[in-house]
Amino acid sequence: MIATTLNEFIIERQEEFPYAKGELSRLLSHISLAAKIVHREVSKAGLVDILGEAGATNVHGENQKKLDVFADEKFINALRGSAECCGIASEENEEIVIFDSEVARNGDYVVTMDPLDGSSNIDVNVSIGTIFAIYRRVSPVGHKATEEDFLQPGRSQVAAGYVIYGSSTMLVYSTGKGVHGFTLDPSIGEFCLSHPNIKTPHSGYIYSINEGNYKKFAKGVKKYLKYCQVSDEPTNRPYSSRYIGSLVADFHRNLLQGGIFIYPKTEHDPCGKLRLLYECNPVAFLVEQAGGKATNGRGERILDIVPKKLHQREPLYVGSRNMVDKAEEFIKEFGD
Ligand code: P6P
Fold it and tell me: What is the CATH number of domain 6-195?
């Protein structure tokens, strides 16, 4: 049987995309092209001098590894060439990246992205990923993109997805009509449909959180963790703690198997660590499409939060809906 490729799948279903035919397929095919290029470099990162610090630091003062910079450039170049995208907001760039050509100014879309999430794991061969979200611009077509195009609530996303560079490279995306996973077949250079219509279990037994921060957690978070450690509800089996330190890898595992990922606020980080625009919103869009839930721990749906700043952080509770609800019960009773 010949597998369905990403491009074939998008074209087969592009009438589901409520805008002009072909726009989304061009955007996603350019994203998948950049993903293949990053895959090639990630898969041989240990062999060429592309590891280690690029010297520069990103807007958050974090050392930029060469692959961060490489991935950022590849995705920006791919989207600049798509003729559909007028600008990008990226973790690796303090300001928005405006595509100022006549063609790009007529683009209807903007993209937010974390070009290489989990980059601290690059040198130790742990899965890393790219996270992206696609919005319709709100600024007038024919003009330059503006920051307002990027400060839309996550519910306005028209598509979102991630690429996970792991034991295999997968691209997982949704346009609001279900979540679909494609595995890269390097022998033909195509992403092939491997996980159609992903649904996440309503309950699970995996909890993902950096327990090294335990002392900084609020009482409600500590109480939920203890609940997980002593309970076998509701799946009648003990919970497992699984934390890779790469959001894409932790999220992908929990999406498929069920589970909850938590990056809570702490006294030191009152808004948590993860970025709303290009980490929380895309995974929130995907998890809701898969039947799960994503909030900031206080009952506020991630997708309803209106961003005020490009690199705004937000606490994230994301995964199986019954687990997010249970965590919120403890937060409500004991505080966050
Ligand atoms: P910590 C990677 O740097 C990242 O942004 C996410 O991919 C990951 O979930 C999180 O930070 C890990 O943070 O503080 O647990 O190392």
Answer: 3.30.540.10
